[in-house]
Predict the structure.
Amino acid sequence: MNTADTLQKTDLKSLTKDELAHFCSELGLQSFRSDQIFQWLYQKGVSDFEDMTNLSKDLRDKLREIATINRIKLVQQQESKDGTIKFLFQLNDPEKEYKVEAVLIPDFFADGAARRLTVCVSSQVGCVFGCAFCATGKMGLFRNLTHGEIVDQVQYINDLAEEKYGKKITNIVYMGMGEPLHNYKAVTNSAHIISDPLSIELSPKRITVSTVGLTKQIKMLADDQEPFNLAISLHAPTDEKRDKIMPINNSMNLESLEDAVKHYHKMTDRSVTYEYLLFDNFNDSPQDARDLAKIVKWVPSKVNIIMYNNVAGVELKRAREERLDNFMRELIKNDVRATVRRSRGDDIDAGCGQLAIREGAPKGKTMAKN
């Protein structure tokens, strides 16, 4: 199969479920055929029409003539001593070597059996928002992922989880490379596919979409009644501090974020999670904790305090334990529901974008000031 032939064909994994149904209808197929093909693509994970054994040979031959099934390719895999596994995938762009990362984060029972298997997936090649603490932000943005490329990450890791741990993945977080709500359509489409009964069938309650605070898209999630959880990457409790580390805050400050969060809660009646990386002597004082408590009271919320996975070339560093203790005590005084999340995979570059940068990715579009 040469490149010219492939370019004329429809990539079935670029189609939504409804678009796949229309594609099949245009071929004169009965409606159940699109469900069969969808199941082969997203539940069984095939990449060859010949493997679709409940389709007739004539139909398989016809599909091979007019369609293709693109899949991302695994190029590197690293496993940490704590069980975290990081994956580097290459996309199928002609004459490009775009790569994205995903991570499997297992949580174990005392006897060593897997309790939770969380997958962190990427939504873009790089990121335009240029957060000061993020390795992916140093890359800049090259392109959005398709929903098929996002689901591919999940499928690959789910297969590995079943083989390695004897169980399927239990949770998905869109917190890998890229800003998920900057790729709104592909992210929401991928989440719908992942939760579909003919696919991996993961409950929407176990899927979390994160954002740096894109207020328009937060409101869209609410208005569209998307059933997934929302997490906001906050990382600083005042505009003054957030401006220093997150360029997006210059155009979408905490006041606009408050408006979006209140709209989200009003429309969905769901709580919000705030992600808060704790940086040494930057956002980890008792006063910072009190300022954070004010934000948490906007709507019913909880906070994940995350111990930063240090990134080479970034001045911000992980907060010391004594400062974490003082910070948590202040949150408790202010009735904030907070959990400390320890850094995982320090020994395998498990922070977003670290593997891709080491692979020599050039610089793309960015909001960050040079």
